[in-house]
Task: structure prediction
Amino acid sequence: MERLRCGIIGFGEAGSAFARQISKGLKRRVLITDPLLNRNPLPRYVQERLQGLRVDMVPAIPRLVKSCDVVISLVTPAVASSVAVEAGKTRSRALFIDFNSISPTEKQACSRLFVEGTFVDGAILGSIGGEGATTPLALAGPCAKRASTLLRSAGLRVSVISTKVGEASALKICRSIFMKGVESLLIETLLAANEFRMTEPVLRSIEQTFNSYGLRSMVHMLVTTHAVHCRRRASEMQSAMKMMDEIGIPGRMCKAARDVLAASSRTGLTDHFGDVVPKNCEAVIKYLSACDRAMG
Result:
């Protein structure tokens, strides 16, 4: 393990955090590559990220991949596939761990670019900005267990969730639907609350509800009652859209919620459950999933 040579593609917030943790955990210098690192002079924020790091800058992806036992890709989704193409051309036997937020099918396509048994599907399940490189990580793929052992030796928090490439990415994207959706809801909620100078009362009310239920109980309550109240809730969100229009704020999330609730109502969801709240969420999701498949 002492001779393990690790490289990182991408030197943004995630790349710099991983470089710091891995170099510390393995007590070795880490290779890094990023087009930003080839600029002269280096941007000030890049210089700040480099301070105190035990790293060696490499000008190009192929050279880094050929020099490493483990390569971690931490780039933007827009360039993740092109980075995989460039790395795969080396035909290296280094483990290539792709932590980028791309779809499961994209991860599977990327895996086919590499020597068999070297590609690992990775997912970051938290906030690098908030938790740094100690945020939970998920791995999937035939060699995910081996990758987990190597990353754990560097002090990273890793779990193996599957031997199938794409399932770590699926976990990440499903989680992102919720997290980014909540982020967007909060922005829209606070814009409206600010207009009425009601920010603190609104947040306090929401906080009380979350504290009262807890996450799992709240999920159960909202999804099961969705079966009975989706039509009424769609009308409520129509009123919310009207209010947002009156105060001059785009009600994008209000409209999205109205559309989802109205779509559920149109499936006959309420009639299906006889206007009675079902006992579990699974029954509601199973019915709506079947409706979506029938329409698709």
Remarks:
- Residues 215-246 form the longest helix (32 residues).
- The radius of gyration is 23 Å.
- Residues 214-295 form one domain.
- The chain has 13 helices and eight strands.
